[in-house]
């Protein structure tokens, strides 16, 4: 199968000596192209570290990460940045936008930083897809939380990345708004063939994915295809997330 | 990229306002200093009195010396303190030069009329009227000894006309004279009183010498022939605008002083600017860390972030620099007026305002901002993109570079302090004192986060005794040691610089005053401008046992300046105690000198040795040392006999006269009644006035830098407080009252201010101890407690206002709205 991200025996240890904490232990996994993958696990299971290593935001202590066929280990920060801006999109939990820039400027920020010409037709299309056509001239402070996350998704999509990473993208939203955002992510996978990887602790959010990876204690404990929120919740309970 | 920079600037106006203000002040200061410097370098003085003489010949106002440096001979010339006179025979030599139509000589001496303009008032012989030229509007030329002609302006202000009788005071005689003529012309900056030729020569007191010679040529090449004819003599030839310099040669001294002061002031303000702007920039970047982390995560390379910060700095500095450069000339004009009022800038020397200082100011602002941005961008490059992901506040350890740099500056501070403690001339000591204080402060600023942590650990427990405000303050200070550090730096700079500037002056002034007070053992002091005849009258007064006339001047030993006093040797022991360490000042005569200990050490001389020097009017003098004394600060480095020095100064009248004996003040007053202006003075007032004369100029100049630092303090604190709106809202929501938040802030400010005061005081004391060790000879600076408390009070008030006002604004919004709004 065609994997966008290949992680091979990736470990990440924070600190040194006796105080060392292993956040990831020998994780080997592939993220398939054109699919929506959710990563779940209790607090401290290594979810965020997994995402950081997979996206080239952080370098693993050992093991290798390949992103779209490129080996990440041994790249310096500048090369990593250049790789990220070509191949990766990000949606964070909050504080996604530069408050001084308008919606359109926020969306085209990665292009501007890489000095790439903006493809106006593509920009119009993704703005339409996230439903912000009327709001391109607004500033983030004038938008609701859900609208801000939709701007972040549009920004993640504008470079036509190989993969979009989301770190609890609905964590700061109410249930209704969260659903809209998740549906939008789902739509990018189904309608545009985009690959999405999302870290979450919400079984409902995970149920929008094609596959759910369960992390526990720095290891991949389980994987589940065609998840429902009940099945995910049950699995999480067994992992000891809600004791 | 530029678009991004511009929108960020427009959106984050408040954050950049601090840097903008700091750069604006720096540019204005640099521009004003540049104007002073340029005035010093290129300032021209139009001739007044000698405007009518196409060629002017005067004595040489400089001491010359050839210095051999690395095989190259370098010619150095330094200005004299008094007017250099010419032998009258020079005029005869000039009359013989072909192409010269006529030659006019002149003698000049101080002479005053009551009620006339207080500007320099000079007496001349009427034969020299053509030099201006002066012509008669009424009356006739003076011929008898008691006849005078006065200029039109003086006649108007003193209400004199032909036939009036007026007392004219001069060194040689005081008495009523008859006004026989009034001129048509007047001079803008001086009063002119004309006597008959013979009377003028008598009053000038220099037989066979003239103060200037005007040459009226018949041919155009006469100036060259005059110069050729004078080759080998000490006479100098002036034409055109150069004649102004020859006429107002004392303005030359002011010019040189402006060059050094403009340079020192400009350099100091540039250093302070870099320090302040770096602090402001670092703070604004600290406040934007999340945004920068987001940019990094989205796709900006560290280099792009650095460039972005660099461009922000460039744009802000160009704007602030241009505005500051526009404000600079106004500041320069204000400084000119202050300096004129203090007598440090002669009214004849016009301020030169050209575009150069303005360009320099913009350049300085850009350089300061660039340096500051480079320093702050180092920090920004360490922001990792992952930090955009988390919700938690970002904390970071103090970088090793910062600590190493801080330690390097500490070492620099130690070295400079040691150097400073060995400097014993004011010219060398003053700039090094400022530099030492600044280097210490830079070290403190760099190590501020570490210092802040230590302070919080020390002050935490006592703070926590206040249950809410103090407790919260302690927690805040602990978790935000970096922020505390960035606030600490400008406050320390403010306290340290202010104390150094103020107390360097008081230390010098106090030491001089102490010595002068302790050394003046006479019962009474009279002054100012006491003619010899008045001193004789005092000597004849019953009950007077000794009268010491004191004149002051400056001589050059080699090229170096030494203050000198001329005293009457007879009875000196009853009026002045110089704290003699070796020899006896009673043996002062026309070929001897007494030397202060510091000067003796600097010159390497002992009793019996000879010193070669040039007196104020250019006369070479090689006296033998007959005494070494301790009170050099109070009385001057050199002491010679009064009669000798009085013959080589412009105004031979005594600045002060010390009188010993049991005669009362009233008896002395009646003895000097015929001499207008002479009065019995308060001894301590005299010494204090002399000590503070120079200090005030420094206060004005350095006060600007202090004000600048004060603005930086307000700036930084306001920026830091305004950024905490969200935190205050959170505190309010969880139940903290407005009053409790304010109390917490006051506790925080108290801790920061007391730390800054402690650090600043230590910086100042260490610097001043070294300064005092070099200049006064003991490492004990003089710190008047009231002034010190004033400095602390002002710094605390500034800090408190700059914290409380923005906090009130931040607390004004409804907390729920603040929390609800997103970044």
Automatic annotation (TrEMBL), chain A:
Pfam family, one: ABC_tran
SUPFAM superfamilies recorded: P-loop containing nucleoside triphosphate hydrolases
Superkingdom of source: Bacteria
Residues in ABC transporter domain copies: 5-242
GO MF annotations, alphabetized: ATP binding
Tagged with keyword Lipid biosynthesis: no
Presence of the UniProt keyword Metal-binding in the record: no
Keyword tags: ATP-binding, Nucleotide-binding, Transport
PANTHER family: ABC TRANSPORTER RELATED (PTHR24220:SF685), IMPORT ATP-BINDING PROTEIN (PTHR24220)
Name recorded for this polypeptide: ABC transporter ATP-binding protein
Species the sequence originates in: Actinoallomurus vinaceus
Automatic annotation (TrEMBL), chain B:
Pfam assignment, any one: FtsX
Residues in ABC3 transporter permease C-terminal domain copies: 266-383, 700-811
InterPro entries named in the record: ABC3_permease_C, Macrolide_Exporter_MacB
Protein name: FtsX-like permease family protein
Cell location: Cell membrane
Keywords assigned by UniProt, alphabetized: Cell membrane, Membrane, Transmembrane, Transmembrane helix
Origin superkingdom: Bacteria
Membrane topology value: Multi-pass membrane protein
Protein family: Belongs to the ABC-4 integral membrane protein family.
Organism of provenance: Actinoallomurus vinaceus
Transmembrane segments: 258-283, 313-335, 355-373, 403-423, 435-456, 483-504, 699-722, 749-776, 782-805
